[in-house]
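Support reply, case 0932

Customer input (verbatim):
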Amino acid sequence: MLNEVLARGTLDSMHVVVTGTSAGIGRAIAARVVALGGHVHGLDVAAATLTDARFYPVPVDLADGAALDRAARSLTAVDALVHAAGVLRVARLGSLDPAASDTMWRVHVDAATRLADTLIPPMAGRGRGRVVLVGSRVAQGMPGRSQYAAVKAAQIALARSWSGEVAARGVTVNVVSPAATATAMLDDPARAGSAPRLPPLGRYIQPAEVAELVSFLLSPAAAAITGQDITICGGASLPA
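Our regenerated output:
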């Protein structure tokens, strides 16, 4: 059904900025947008792994504010922004690391803010645009992940605030919050103290499933959806 909706509202000729396109959810989103006829400007510090005539890699360290500002200003006639890049650090009370908080804040919140501040006003000026921040179900809070939860909760606050500013000018702003997703982040040694939880679905969420939802939110069919935090969790949010 979702594919049918997307087929009716394709992403032909859309220029979409996607962060974190070298792997995981970001790469899956970039690949799906390209498959639906869109053009992707992929921002990532790592080398590009997607090869397509409609994919344009933009090497940049998202944690470097000045470099990111320069990259954002070089992007023109952008129709949509998807901030999918992420980094996870885990720790419990008594061993919280301020440096980890700073890193996660710069990647998840400051990078989103800098990109939005540059790219959303021109969208609003043209009367159309889409913004999707890839959040996390952890934004609701989880033992051992307070610092990560904080930056993901901040993304929701940003999206709801921005959506209220630009809804009347044809720009939607939403958050897509997956539960544990089958990416390399699951095996990151930095999360050794907080193992991923298998959803009731019996498997982890697939990056392609997140990409499908994001693609729908980018499409004309999703024009009435804004200011929302949409969870894709395989039942993980259901009462135990």
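We compared this against your earlier run and they match. Two observations from our side: The radius of gyration is 17 Å. Residues 105 and 151 are 6 Å apart (CA to CA). Please reopen the case if you see a mismatch on your end.
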